[in-house]
Amino acid sequence: MKSLVYLGAAGFALFAALPATTNYKLNSYSFGAGGVANTKTTTYSLEGSVGEISGKTSSTANATVKPGFTETQQANVPQLSALDNGSGVYYNKLHFVIDSQNNPTDATYLIAVSTDNFASNIAYVQSDGTLTGSISTALYQTYAAWGGASGSFVIGLNSSTTYSVKLKATQGDKTESAFGPALSQATAAPSITFNLVTSAQSSPPFSVGLGALDAGTINSSTDTINTTLSTNGTSGGDVYIKGKNGALLSSSTGSSITAASNDLTGVASGFGAQNVTITQTTGGPFSVSSPYNVSGNNVGILSATARSLYTSTVPVTGGAGTLRLKAKAASTTVAANDYQEILTFIAAGNF
């Protein structure tokens, strides 16, 4: 007896759902076979992988995602958290602070600077803050080397010029990020303002009286000479003072009371200036120069040579000094009613 057994083919269908959430969907996924060893020469290195090697760059206005294994190893894209001109003070430099975007502490950063938004004019910040047109590994510095949270400066810039600054990070082989977003800031213009008045007069010509000079009596001017200086000079600025004759001179008699740096208490006669107060609004400090930083009956010389009266070694705003004159006549001083001196004040910014 024969029997027949019919063998039929059974088909199997496999179904899989693509991973998805309410916000994201992965359109494809697969299994690769891992990577291959690095291939290197003296000028380049190549990291290969086996499996899926193709993909498409995705980007938005704020982010870019590139395909491939190497891209996942790159440093986080850094940015600047601050770029400023010191509230209008810096005319030849800009201050910047790096936002590391959680890169490791041994990551290094390259900082690029441009005056045309990186169209063609591009330079790079060196470790001393100056600019160079060539890239080298020496330009890459750590977050700490770039000043950490306090930041650092790009120096040697032109005044009244807008600069754009951006940076990128790297940490070891094959990890250099793209440049982060740029910030722009203009350097300030060099500036100095100076004003001089007396406590009794707000506009020239100015005069300060010493009263009647009795022999042996020390007279102080009732009114004071008030000066103010503001400058963004990198090394601050000075107010200088000088006299035309170096003395209180009587034109009618030719007699004089010579100016000198002295304690008028212990000399027969003399003439000079003494600072009373000194302040500043910001910056500085604004200070009194010797020999005018005295008190009591001491005075500083007023000669035909210009001498520093007030000084600041850094930018200062609202530096204000108050000056008083003192004089003493001797018993041998010829009596006259025209003793006078012409004082000149000069302000200079140290740019």
Q: Tags for this entry?
A:
Immunoglobulin-like, 351 residues, 3 domains, single chain, 30 strands, six-stranded antiparallel β-sheet, mainly beta
Structure described in brief:
The chain is mainly β and 351 residues long. It is 0% helix and 38% strand. The protein has three domains: 34-73, no CATH class; 79-186, Immunoglobulins (Immunoglobulin-like, Sandwich); 192-349, Immunoglobulin-like, CATH 2.60.40.
Q: How would you describe this protein?
A:
By secondary structure, the protein is mainly β. The protein has 3 domains: 34-73, no CATH class; 79-186, Immunoglobulin-like, CATH 2.60.40; 192-349, Immunoglobulin-like, CATH 2.60.40. The chain contains no helices and 30 strands. The strands form 9 sheets. Strands 9, 10, 11, 12, 14 and 15 form a 6-stranded antiparallel beta sheet that branches.
Low-confidence stretches: 1-9
CATH topology of the largest domain: Immunoglobulin-like
CATH class group of the largest domain? Mainly Beta
Helix-strand sequence: EEEEEEEEEEEEEEEEEEEEEEEEEEEEEE
Number of DSSP-assigned strands? 30
In terms of DSSP E residues, the strand content is: 35-45%
User: What is the arithmetic mean of pLDDT?
Assistant: 88
Q: Measured on Cα atoms, how large is the radius of gyration?
A: 38 Å
Helix fraction, binned, reads under 10%
Largest sheet: 6 strands, antiparallel
The overall number of domains is: 3
List the helices and strands and how they pair.
Layout: E1 34-35, E2 39-40, E3 45-46, E4 49-50, E5 58-59, E6 64-65, E7 79-84, E8 93-99, E9 108-114, E10 122-125, E11 131-132, E12 141-142, E13 152-155, E14 162-170, E15 183-186, E16 192-198, E17 218-220, E18 225-231, E19 237-243, E20 247-250, E21 256-258, E22 262-263, E23 270-279, E24 282-283, E25 287-288, E26 298-299, E27 307-312, E28 316-328, E29 339-340, E30 343-349
Antiparallel strand pairs: 1-4, 2-3, 5-6, 7-8, 8-13, 9-10, 9-12, 9-14, 10-11, 14-15, 16-18, 17-28, 18-28, 19-27, 19-30, 20-21, 20-29, 22-26, 23-28, 24-28, 25-27
